[in-house]
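Handout, page 2. Input:
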Amino acid sequence: MKPAGAEPSVVPPSLDTTLMQYPWVVIRFSCHFCERGGRARLAACAAQFGKHASLLRLLTVFVSGCPYDPSNPARKPQKYGHHCGAYLPDLGRTSPPDLPPALTGLSLIEGGKADMLPAEHSPSQQRRRVGASDNG
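Output:
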């Protein structure tokens, strides 16, 4: 049973999610290899591609502008060359991407006081010069 005022559960989006099922207002795009990235409003994407377009289709459109697009006919196939690393960073998330950190609340982590690191450093051995005599 959920406490009063708790958010309704959100199904995390996947590449098969349609724009009609996408739970947030902003769709973010990013790339692992280059600086390409961006944000698109859900309403604008639905107006341009239709409400039944999948996130995979939008990702394909994003990749089409990439110089490393593997389906680009002008690009020669390369065995060890770069390929496009475009992805949607919000796939699999259950919280909105634009939610301010102050509203996310605290999260409970495993462990406790017994697992904490000591506050004071343990005394370390004094360093000596190599070749110095032990007497002095």
